[in-house]
Structures are given as structure tokens and as C-alpha cells.
């Protein structure tokens, strides 16, 4: 790795002590570029500074912008990077980008967030709109994780070309730790009814023959207690709460199908992880990851279609094992390094 450029990654989402699942998709992108990445994180927590092997993660919930700037400037002086790679936009990145450009350092940004989907751009108003556009228009390279996110960013940033480099998919284990007696559906998503629609999935499940199916919810979030209350008296429905990505990869083979029926997804990593474990997946054609779907992904863009697909799977044979070489760490790492080489000339 001695010939690789020195890159400082600046993150807003990243695994940390109080939430080891936070920003795991960002961590995977970063680790695909180097065995020993340099990372500076300002995450939404009150955790103490975590520091190890070139990585500093600050619990920045009560951290001032002045303090963040001072920490960033110190890392620039110490690490002397050739590139600063920002991950996931937030307004407090603006002064850091300004300082990076002032120092003559090349810049690149990877966007994961749903705020820049074309249908959601209207939520950016006033100074927030102007600040974000200023930021995106002044990067040397702009990456996002899916074509639908690229559409929104292209419309928003106007003169900035957007490069699509998808999320990295970790391969799940294909080993059962338990064998369900009924067809087992699972849902892996933050429990937010407004966007992830767990209550709709539950309603569709209740229309199936109860003796033939079971439903498992994984994930934490603001509506977790509401979900627990909804299922408290229901047979064959379990709520397991938040799990780490490592735990999910181990648990997936215990199920037969995964359901992701959110109102929107910039990618939809869970669909692909489930497919690598040999599960069927029910998803939407409108999600960011749709261009990479295989034959084991069944489409259900409406509630009625979701119910029909769930019912059809009760008699289905075992799904074929999914394989996604284009979404591997090795493949994505090469694509990111190609952009590093381009901006350094």
C-alpha cells in the first residue's frame, strides 16, 4: 500500500462505542481503500474520544464548530494528506472543505443520504439549500451510491459530475443456527413507521395463513416500543431489537425470506446480504440498489403486491444463492482508487 495516496477520511456516521452499527456502510467503503485508513469522525453521540491506529472518533453532540475546526486543522497538519475524502454531507463540513481547498489539498465526497433523492430535494430550503449547493459545487470529485441518488445530486449541484460507486455487500454465512418450523420472513431495518413501514408489513403478514408463516423484526428506532405493542398478542411474530451487522449476517440463514418495503431507499443493503445467505428477498423496483438485483429478488412496489409476493413464497422452493462480485470490497476499492488517481493527475 506504500504507493497509495495519503487520504484523510472525514465522517459523520461511523461505528462507535454507544452504537457499533452506526455508519457501517461508510466504514466498509473506507476500509476498502486501505489496510490502515486515516479517519476523523464527528458522530452524533456523547461518547468519549475513541482513538486507535490513525482513527479518531469524537462524540460531537455537544462539540462546537470551532472545536471541530481546530481538531480538523490539527489532523491536516499532522497527517499531511494528499486528499481529504468526506463522507455524507452535513452543514458543519463546509468550513472543513473551505480550509482543505485553502491548503491546496484535493477533495472528494461520497454521499449516502436520502435527503438528496430527487423527490426529497424540496425539503432543502433557504440557507440549507445554498450551503449544500456551495459545498457540492466545490469538490474535485463527487461520488454517490446509486443511480437514483445520482439523479438528485446532479439536479441539485448543477455543474458537478456525479460518479456512482455502490455500497459494499458483506457475504452472510450460509449456516443455520436454528431451523424454523414455518416459512420464516424477516425485516431488517430501523424501526421508523413513517419510512420503513413495519406496520404495513405486519398487516400483510396477518392476511397469510398463520400456521404456515412467522415474522421476525430486527432493528431499533423511535417506533420500537410501538411495534412491540402491536405484536404483543400476535402468534408467530417476534421483535428482536437492534443487532450489529455481524450479528445480522449470522442470523439471516435462519430465515427463508427478507422483506424491505420502505417508502424509499438510497440503496437497500439488507436485500443483498439476505441474497448472499440464500434467502428470497422482496423489495421495490424504485430502490437505489435495483440495478444490481438478481433473480432471487421479487418486486413488490405496492401493498397489494407485497401481500401477493409473501403468499406466493409460502410454497416456494429454496432460493438460489446470491453472488454480487461488483459489490465486493475489492471491486469498490479499485473504483475509489481510480478516482483518487484522477484527481491527483
If you had to describe this structure to a student in words, what would you say it looks like?
With 345 residues, the protein is α/β, with parallel strands linked by helices. The chain has two domains: 7-168 and 328-344, Rossmann fold; 183-324, 3-Layer(aba) Sandwich (Rossmann fold), CATH 3.40.50. 34% of the residues lie in helices and 18% in strands. It has helices at residues 24-31, 65-79, 94-102, 126-137, 147-157, 193-196, 198-205, 224-231, 245-251, 269-276, 303-313, 329-344, and strands at 7-11, 38-43, 50-52, 55-59, 83-87, 106-111, 141-144, 162-164, 183-188, 213-218, 237-239, 257-259, 280-283, 297-299. The strands form two sheets. An eight-stranded mixed sheet has the order 3-4-2-1-5-6-7-8, with helices on both faces. The chain has a six-stranded parallel sheet with strand order 11-10-9-12-13-14, sandwiched between helices. Strand 5 (83-87), helix 3 and strand 6 (106-111) form a beta-alpha-beta unit. Helix 2 runs parallel beside helix 3 and helix 7 crosses helix 11 (303-313). The longest helix is centred in the last third of the chain and has 16 residues, at 329-344. The radius of gyration is 21 Å and the shape is elongated. The mean pLDDT is 95.
Amino acid at each position: 500500500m506504500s504507493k497509495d495516496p495519503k487520504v484523510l477520511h472525514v465522517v459523520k456516521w461511523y461505528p462507535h462505542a454507544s452504537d457499533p452499527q452506526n455508519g457501517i456502510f461508510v466504514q466498509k467503503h473506507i476500509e476498502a481503500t486501505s489496510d490502515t485508513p486515516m479517519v476523523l469522525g464527528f458522530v452524533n453521540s456523547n461518547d468519549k474520544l475513541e482513538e486507535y491506529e490513525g482513527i479518531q472518533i469524537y462524540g460531537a453532540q455537544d462539540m462546537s464548530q470551532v472545536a471541530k475546526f481546530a481538531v480538523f486543522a490539527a489532523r491536516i497538519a499532522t497527517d499531511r494528506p494528499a486528499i481529504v475524502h468526506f463522507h455524507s454531507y452535513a452543514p458543519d463540513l463546509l468550513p472543513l472543505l473551505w480550509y482543505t481547498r485553502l491548503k491546496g489539498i484535493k477533495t472528494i465526497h461520497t454521499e449516502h443520504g436520502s435527503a438528496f433523492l430527487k423527490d426529497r430535494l424540496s425539503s432543502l430550503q433557504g440557507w440549507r439549500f445554498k450551503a449544500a449547493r456551495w459545498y457540492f459545487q466545490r469538490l474535485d470529485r463527487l461520488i454517490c451510491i446509486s443511480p437514483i441518488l445520482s439523479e438528485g445530486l446532479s439536479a441539485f449541484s448543477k455543474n458537478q459530475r456525479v460518479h456512482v460507486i455502490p455500497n459494499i455487500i458483506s457475504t452472510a454465512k450460509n449456516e443455520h443456527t436454528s431451523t424454523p418450523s414455518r416459512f420464516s420472513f424477516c425485516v431488517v431495518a430501523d424501526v421508523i413507521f413513517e419510512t420503513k413501514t413495519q406496520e404495513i408489513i405486519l398487516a400483510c403478514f396477518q392476511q397469510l395463513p398463520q400456521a404456515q408463516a412467522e415474522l421476525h423484526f430486527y432493528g431499533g428506532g423511535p417506533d420500537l416500543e410501538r411495534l412491540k405493542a402491536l405484536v404483543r398478542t400476535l402468534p408467530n411474530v417476534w421483535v428482536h431489537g437492534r443487532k450489529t451487522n455481524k450479528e445480522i449476517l449470522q442470523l439471516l440463514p435462519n430465515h427463508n425470506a427478507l422483506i424491505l418495503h420502505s417508502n424509499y431507499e438510497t440503496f437497500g443493503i439488507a436485500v443483498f446480504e439476505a441474497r448472499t445467505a440464500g434467502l428470497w428477498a422482496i423489495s421495490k423496483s424504485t430502490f437505489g440498489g435495483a440495478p444490481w438485483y438478481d433473480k432471487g429478488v421479487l418486486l413488490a412496489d405496492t401493498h397489494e403486491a407485497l401481500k401477493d409476493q409473501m403468499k406466493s413464497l409460502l410454497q416456494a422452493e429454496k432460493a438460489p444463492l446470491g453472488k454480487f462480485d461488483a459489490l465486493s470490497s475489492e471491486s469498490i476499492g479499485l473504483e475509489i482508487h481510480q478516482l483518487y488517481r484522477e484527481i491527483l493527475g
